[in-house]
Predict the 3D structure of the following.
Amino acid sequence: MTQSESTVRNTRRMPSYRTLWFVLFGGWLFAYADRALTGPVVTWMIDNDIDFMGAAQNPHALGGLIGSLFFAGYMLTQLPSGRLGDRYGHATLLSVCFMWAGLATIVSGLITGLITFVALRVITGLGEGAFYSNDRALIVAHTPERFRSLGLGVAITGLAFGLTVANIFAVPLLDFGVDVLGKDHAWRMPFLVFGAFTLGFAVVMWWFMRRLVGPIRPGPPLRNLMLISAVFCVLIMALFWLCDSVGLPEWASAALQVVLAACIVLVMRRRGSIGTAVSLKDRDTTLIYVAAIAILWSIWLFGYWSVAIVSSAAHSSLTTAGLVAAFNAGAGIIGFPVGGWLSDKASRRKMGRRNLLITATAVQGGLVLLFGAYLQFTQMPSLWVMGVLMFCTGLFLNAVQPMSQALTADLVGPKERGAAFGMWNLIGEVGALTSPVFSGVVRDATGSWSAAIYLDAALVIGSALLYFGVRRSAPRPTQSTTATATEVA
């Protein structure tokens, strides 16, 4: 919380921190619905040979690349927007990013052509990148410490609702689009409808943040965010154009975007202030950041391709597959808040947040492995069994995210949290960026989704091992602090 936000909070009656949780819950719902609907829409376009997807030689790889390019934009603005939130106020950045996201999603449904569609998805991601780091920091700033992880879990439960809404309603909206716009343009309808709802929610977000912190002054942070986004958009689209011109495979484009993100991290590490350096250079938080790659990889393997996985395995319709896939996304309705609640309990007991996080991550990895084996060794997988396995997998996947985020908050000081959460998601989004395209490449190469699921299981189990290296449970002492670090139980 900035000094101006703190002053206003002390002089006027504030909404409760629980109300803040549920407003940000809505933010996660709309943000994830907007980005997750691309998967079902691309799958529908592939199945119906529509527009630029119908002419693609490797359609699943191209579809995965489109999703990855969105996350390239979303990933690259994580750290800069977190630092802007630390400077101008986290509430201000949240108000700006939803207006941006709603407008960009609507325009995504109005344009024509592969290049412009990709560019709009990148621009949408660049705007939504301001949400994560500022949402997490605002919750931590306004929530009592004993409820910190629960608050993080309740708010991010909106992610599960957003994925569920996208999986359930994308296909009916496509069918509605066929009736209204014709088959060739039906893919536009989900973007127009979801974008309009997001824009409406942006008005609610703006009103609430004014109540929370006082007048919103978006000018300076918006100008800074637009300048940063313009640079990143040019870099991302230049990489895409270069790869397309020389004929590089889609996975090579995603790999180059990861290299771009790594260069940005190195620059920020070298130029960061003393406070920011703590969150960027600390060994323990770095292990958590790297382990987060597996969390985001899993979310977007299933969040982007779950409809395709189910329909391919069971030879079902997209509507039926969307309902089954919703079991994975819907598991977050339980997993996020329960994971946060258990993390708060564990932090006050001998087990500690870290050990609980290790256990939950290991169980998740085992369930993903089981799901891959079921698809590989069953000739006609049952929709019910797939639904149960996807629900159980999603339950633990969603539970580990607030545990990891709360552990990050424990390890950094209040003035560093925007930057720390930005770095968590910047590095973690490497998984979101690469998961759709690499999973699509593996699917095209093998003709099955099992290998892609096994790869996910290996990454998850590897992340559980990384958490063993985290040794502290409190901020590292700075020049003004003489307290010693607390060892993890």
Notes: The domain at 3-467 is CATH 1.20.1250.20 (Growth Hormone; Chain: A;). The chain has one domain: 3-467.
